[in-house]
Design brief:
The protein is of the alpha+beta class. The chain contains 3 helices and 8 strands. It has one domain (about 20-180). The chain has helices at about 30-50, 100-120, 170-180; strands spanning about 10, 15, 25, 55-60, 70-75, 135-140, 145, 155-160. A 3-stranded antiparallel beta sheet has the order 3-4-5. Strands 6-7-8 form a 3-stranded antiparallel beta sheet. Strands 1-2 form a two-stranded antiparallel ribbon. A hairpin with a 2-residue loop joins strand 1 (about 10) and strand 2. The longest helix has 20 residues, at about 100-120. Bound molecules: zinc ion (ZN). Zinc ion (ZN) binds near residues 130, 149 and 150.
């Protein structure tokens, strides 16, 4: 697996010194499928790591002529870790549109989000509330966070619905927080 991590300052050298196009926030509405998928994953993030800021989509312009732009799941400050969610293969330079299959989109975004959160904040995420083990994305009849604990493992929740898998106390706290946020 190749890892590329963008940092605005590399050993004190401004990124612009490399004369490469800089990553930018993806235009709202430009990637509706990825945006919807990221919304679901951000719900899980807020439910389980309330202090963590929501993730964003960053677009890395082509670094060389003929290469495609690449979409990443990043922290709000623009840093990310891991592979692009789109396109997966940079040898495809045909300006590929979004994949149509929502499950594929969701699985890719959840994987990328997990990598960015874990590598940038140095913690395992998400964690099974019962076995305290790190969850992994798995696609079966739905895209789910899967726990390897227990007898043969189990589904913790569908991606986007992790809040529902939390113990009752935390779930009630979340509802209270959400109500407080909605108040003007
Ligand atoms: Zn578990």
């Amino acid at each position: 697996m190749s890892h590329f991590s963008y940092r605005p300052l590399l050993h004190g050298t401004p990124a612009s010194a490399f004369h490469t196009p800089e990553p930018r926030r993806a235009e709202p509405g430009a990637w509706p499928g990825f945006e919807k998928a990221l919304e679901a994953v951000n719900r899980d993030l807020t439910a389980t790591l309330p202090e963590h800021p929501p993730l964003v989509l960053m677009l890395l312009p082509a670094q060389e002529t003929g290469e495609p732009e690449q979409l990443y799941v990043a922290l709000p400050d623009g840093r990310w870790q891991g592979n692009a969610v789109h396109p997966e293969d940079t040898t495809d330079n045909s300006g590929v549109p979004e994949p149509i299959d929502p499950a594929r989109l969701l699985a890719r975004v959840a994987d990328a989000a997990q990598e960015t959160v874990m590598e940038m904040s140095w913690q395992v995420w998400p964690v099974c509330p019962y076995h305290k083990l790190g969850l992994h994305v798995r696609t079966a009849e739905a895209v789910v966070w899967w726990c390897g604990g227990g007898d043969g493992g189990h589904k913790a929740a569908e991606v986007g619905r992790l809040a529902g898998s939390l113990p009752g106390k935390r779930r009630r706290e979340l509802r209270r927080e959400e109500r407080a946020r909605r108040k003007p």
